[in-house]
Design brief:
Radius of gyration: 23 Å
Number of domains: 2
Protein name: Thioredoxin like 1
Pfam families: PITH, Thioredoxin
Strand content: 25-35%
Number of strands: 17
Keywords: Disulfide bond, Redox-active center
CATH architecture of the largest domain: Sandwich
Shape: elongated
């Protein structure tokens, strides 16, 4: 990794080689090369164009040997994961972008959705970088273009901090993690129909709606109380007697089609955690099942270059 203060500059021609195909590579008609960003405005345009798709941005610098070393692998990853947008930013060419994203060393790889940074990876380890990309691709909730999520909002699953999540009365065989992925698995309650779920986010978010999917409608949640930003873990007795931020009385109709359940948006403007108390299910069954649970909304803060005051000097100056 190259610290920005210590790397020496090389000619522009040496930098241009970073985005070229690997030496000896045979051309492939479907090959997708990395988009090299020419200025700060172009960076913002590319992020906007990516929408809710994952965008991986490589911050590089001329003369940085680790950047050169990982360049062929980064190019190949762009072909291997065509659903991901791959961008390359020279920190000297796009100084405002580098400063706004707190780039202190190269290569640094940052991950964005809807212009919001969701993760970061540093160093020239190609296998480690691919593992990070795979992690986000596998948890990809899908793009707004391919779903019923309203324009301007996104599935907030990439912002869920699993370390801060908790579920009381989950089954040993069908635990909480099952409802965070879209497959045939499910979360099931244990000794009765009630569940108490806390979901933490890695940054403040605004919630627009709740998304609940349930394959077995008779066991789908019915009465649900929602709490936000609780200072401590809540027990079932506390949940019963406490006033909710919003209470839901769901019907089987709520689970048809997209499963989106509107929330009172004005009450969910700065949310760090959400607690769901599922009190009952649709068919008064012994246990409750949830196939998928997430929230639709936006992060409170998004990357916006218009809010960034230029603090860097002219191109070529040291800092």
């Amino acid at each position: 990794m190259c610290l920005l203060l210590s790397c020496t500059s090389t000619s522009d021609s040496s930098f241009s080689r970073l985005s070229a195909p690997p030496a000896g590579a045979r051309p492939i008609s479907s090959q997708k090369w990395v988009k090299v960003i020419g200025n700060d405005a172009e960076f913002q345009a590319e992020l906007s164009g990516a929408g809710s798709r994952l965008a991986v941005v490589k911050f590089t610098m001329s003369g940085c040997r680790p950047c050169v070393r990982i360049a062929p692998a980064f190019n190949m990853l762009s072909n291997k994961y065509p659903q991901v947008v791959f961008l390359e930013v020279d920190v000297h060419v796009c100084q405002a972008t580098a400063a706004a994203n707190n780039i202190s060393a190269t290569p640094t790889f940052q991950f964005f959705r809807n212009k919001v940074r969701v993760d970061q990876y540093q160093g020239a380890d190609a296998s480690g970088l691919e593992e990070k990309i795979k992690q986000h691709v596998e948890n990809d909730p899908g793009s707004n273009e391919d779903s019923d999520i309203p324009k301007g909002y996104m599935d907030l699953m990439p912002f869920v901090s699993k370390a801060g999540c908790e579920c009381l009365n989950e089954s040993d065989d069908c635990g909480f993690d099952n409802c965070l992925i879209k497959d045939s698995s499910y979360l099931e309650s244990d000794c009765d129909e009630q569940l108490l779920i806390t979901i933490a986010f890695n940054q403040p978010v605004k919630l627009f709606s709740l998304k609940l999917l349930a394959a077995e409608l008779a066991q789908a949640p019915k009465s649900v109380k929602i709490f936000i930003n609780l200072p401590r873990s809540m027990g079932f007795d506390d949940a019963e007697r406490s006033e909710a931020t919003q209470a839901l009385d769901l019907s089987e109709e709520d689970y048809k089609d997209d499963g989106l359940i509107p929330l009172r948006y004005v009450k969910f403007q700065n949310v760090n955690s959400v607690t769901l108390f599922i009190r009952s299910n649709q068919g008064d069954e012994e246990t409750t099942k949830v196939n998928y649970l997430t929230f639709i909304g936006t992060p409170v803060q998004a990357t916006n270059m218009n809010d960034f005051k230029r603090v860097v000097g002219k191109k070529g100056e040291s800092h």
